[in-house]
Design a protein that fits this description.
With about 450 residues, the chain is mostly helical. It has 24 helices and 6 strands. It has a two-stranded antiparallel sheet with strand order 1-2. Strands 3-4 form a two-stranded antiparallel ribbon. The protein is globular, with a radius of gyration of 24 Å. The two termini are about 20 Å apart.
Amino acid sequence: MSDSKTAAEALRPYDPQAHGGWTRADATHLLWRTQYGATQAEIEEACSAGLQKTLDRRVTVQPESAKFQAAEQLLRRTAFDTGSIGDLKAWWLYRMLNSANPLVEKMALMWHSHFATSNSKVNSVPQMAAQNDLIRTYATGSFRKLLHGMARDVAMLVWLDGTANRKRQPNENFAREVMELFSLDVGHYTERDIKEAARAFSGWQVRDGKFWFNPLQHDSGNKTVFGKTGDFDGDQIVDLCLAQEACPRFLAYKILRAFVVGAPDAGLIDALAQRIRFHDFEMTPVLRELFGSEVFFSPESRQAIIKSPVELVLGAHRSLESHPNLAAAVPLLSSLGQDVFEPPTVKGWDGGRLWISSTSMLQRANFAAELATGSRLGTIAEPERIASQGAFDSSEACVRYYGNLLLNRELETDVVARLAGFMNQAQGNRDQRLRGVIQLIMAMPEFQLV
């Protein structure tokens, strides 16, 4: 896609019939990108439903089950009672894996990295949970409302020293980050814009654990930001940022990189930015168009994103129908480099190729081995039972089943033969040998991609 016209054409609705029909690979691709992993039953359901019905369900908020709500509330109360951020992490991981709205949770994690706030400084489970609630409320909704909400969020004000922003001594931290990290990216503002915006946010403080506007510490004089002059307050600065041409482009880049392709080109970014502006930063119609587009289903966009640790771990648990040990998942994700509620810097997680190193690849392989063959991280659905239900009459059929389930691709004939040979010759009962095959498939380079 070398220009905006070509990119705009790529955002045209995808017609499965023009590409040979709606396939299992198509259904799995859509599910993988809009939730963490996919069970065999979910893939079969999406295959039967077709693109539009599956897409509608992905982007439309669904009611949560009573069972989910009871478990989620118990985990949340536990975190509040203990004051343990580890317990709050387990609560969110449970939501990511079990919510009827996995796309909301996926978008919430993207926005968590975008508005990166760490409990290491905030040091408050209730405040981190409240910020997470705010993000979830608008995760697939209005970015405009989300950005305004973040400007008044207590955890954010603590994280970026907003409480120290006073009329006589403006603190520039939040004003800088709202432009550089939250709305515009580097190069689309001046130092004067930062200094003047900081004055507009003065007096936005925290009192008794809540947002408090302190009029005595607010600079009510005229400020000049982006060439416009007025007695701006913080809300008006947010609106000025949203009005800049760079804002929807910055968001388009973030969304494309998270859900479509690791390195989106300028034309595609421009095309999606136009849709974001057209929909006035409402994410649901933007996501519906994007996930139903030609570019989303293009060969270049498939298996084109390196799995984040959360994607890797939760996706494997879901696909293998595991009952995960969330308490064990928390330190595991930290060791793999994605410690939710404690991002490494104000820039969040860079992701992409930075997820992979010689050390992390060894850790990922160890995770695959322990999940497939052990019980500490969680108990996966018994491979022997699944094989029996599927009426697999050969080792080759078992290998193809798990290859499709875990890699969303048909394994080459020689790979199938080698894995089937291992299964036939390895020690142990059939269930143990099947687990060995699962481990080997999860050790393949292709398993690192989504």
